[in-house]
Amino acid sequence: MEITLNVPVIAGCDVTDCAYNSDHTCHAKAISVGNGVSPACDTMVQGDMEPDEMNIAGVGACKVRDCVFNNDLECGAAHVFVGRDGDGAVCVTYTAL
Ligand code: SF4
Question: Of 27, 33, 38, 44, which has the most beta carbons under 10 Å away?
Fold first, then answer.
């Protein structure tokens, strides 16, 4: 059984050393955002694999309550961009309340 998620799409991601990234596109089925400290992408994993390019990622869950787009731990943005943050990845659409 497959399900369809109605979530904001990841419109672009600059973290090209992530295993899910191909051509600045995230191919995870969905990402989780927020590590309690920053709007970090919790799904990012370094590695070399062929991501399933049939997948276009969306924001499955977001723990960043102090973002203007956060509705009860779900992202309400039209779309989201992800960028580099040191060795990690971060939601750059994040906008503080
Ligand atoms: S825009 Fe805000 S609510 Fe959406 S994923 Fe980024 S931090 Fe979370």
Answer: 33
40: tokens are: 């970090």
Confidence band of 47 (pLDDT split at 50, 70, 90): confident
Place of tokens 């943005």: 77
Query: CA-CA-CA-CA torsion for 75, 94, 56, 46, nearest 10 degrees?
Result: -120
Q: What is the pTM of this model?
A: 0.88
Residue 77 is given by DSSP the state: S
The verdict on the CB of residue 39 being under 6 Å from ligand 1 is yes
Q: Which atom from ligand 1 is nearest to the alpha carbon of 62?
A: 8
- Residue 24 CA to residue 71 CA, distance in Å, equals 27
Q: How far is the CA of 71 from the centre of ligand 1 (A)?
A: 9
